[in-house]
From TrEMBL:
It holds the Pfam family GFA. Keywords: Lyase, Metal-binding, Zinc. PANTHER family: CENP-V_GFA DOMAIN-CONTAINING PROTEIN-RELATED, GFA DOMAIN-CONTAINING PROTEIN. Residues 4-119 form the CENP-V/GFA domain. Belongs to the Gfa family. It comes from Vreelandella lionensis. This is GFA family protein.
Amino acid sequence: MADYLGSCLCGNTKFEVQGDLDGFYLCHCQYCQKDTGSGYAANLFLNSAKLIWLAGSESVTTFTLPGTRHKKSFCKLCGSALPSIHEAGLLVIPAGCLDTEVSMSPTAHIFTSRRAGWEEAMSDVPEFERLPEPTKRA
């Protein structure tokens, strides 16, 4: 029985994970910023879990940054981040690729010394439930 189900954006790649979450980290390192095109990556860590590809495993490719432990798996059709197995069997799942709700709150922010400068102003940024209307320029 799957504890978590997930897929890529195009729906070609589907997977299930059996196991318990050990941590939920928001990583601000420069590698995760480049991977996501954002201020941080939201990753779930599972030390003793089983990853089962249900569909599209042939579309999964993995990139390891030479000289580092940084690894990223993704769908080669749509580019969506997907789970990857790291050193000592650690399973890392990008939280956004799960279709199952994650009940765990983030454990910690990590590599905060690399935090993007614009992130500090986030609490003052307006929020919208959908894409706002374009503003007219004078």
